[in-house]
Amino acid sequence: MKTAIFFQAMHNSPGKYKYLRYCHLYLIPLILIFSAPKLWASPPQPHHNQSVIQWQLDKTVGGVEFYFAISTCNKENVVFLKMNNKNSYPVEVSWKEVFQTQLEKNKEGFAGTKKITISPGETFESDCNTIQQPLLIVLAGQISPTYIATISGFSFKDISVTKKQ
């Protein structure tokens, strides 16, 4: 009721309350200026897996170090693989994969033996959105044809390293 009387008085005596009519012209820009950092700040970027990758050395065979990292990609377990060829020449590497899941302790991957040629230096995958080497990323759905695995462990098996001619 008091508010209605105030606005009626403001309408009937324009000279007396003239400044109140236009206060919104000053208040809105001030509100925008003080809230601008919040409005213009970029939203937090999603981390599809990119909490810092924690590589774990599994084995070293024939001058090649074999690493893995268990992470998540789009809310799904994933194993990233990395190989560091310490040799001064390219090598052909073959291996099998063994997983620890919620249902099995030593589940051998149903993809069988994988084979890749790597140059000296590191070859790896660490981002499921820009896959360069599909053999170096294993999604949970690729471990077993009968269930989606929750991966708790990984190891390389039957590794072979041969000099590439």
Indicate the topology:
Elements: H1 2-12, H2 18-21, H3 23-40, E1 56-61, E2 64-73, E3 76-85, E4 91-100, E5 107-108, E6 114-118, E7 121-124, E8 137-139, E9 153-163
Antiparallel strand pairs: 1-2, 2-3, 3-7, 3-8, 4-5, 4-6, 4-9
Question: Structural class, judged by helices and strands?
Answer: alpha+beta
Instruction: Describe the largest sheet.
Output: 5 strands, antiparallel
Shape, per Cα inertia axes: globular
The beta-strand count equals 9
CATH architecture of the largest domain: Sandwich
Q: What is the CATH topology of the largest domain?
A: Immunoglobulin-like
Low-confidence stretches: 36-50
Provide the helix percentage.
10-25%
Report the top-level CATH class of the largest domain: Mainly Beta
The helix-strand sequence is HHHEEEEEEEEE
Mean pLDDT over the full residue set: 80
Which percent band covers the strand fraction? 35-45%
Work out the radius of gyration.
31 Å
What is the first-to-last residue Cα distance?
Answer: 93 Å
Describe this entry's structure for a reader.
The chain is of the alpha+beta class. Helix content is 20%, strand content 37%. It contains three helices and nine strands. The strands form two sheets. Strands 1, 2, 3, 7 and 8 form a five-stranded antiparallel sheet that branches. Strands 4, 5, 6 and 9 form a four-stranded antiparallel sheet that branches. The longest helix is centred in the first third of the chain and has 18 residues, at 23-40.
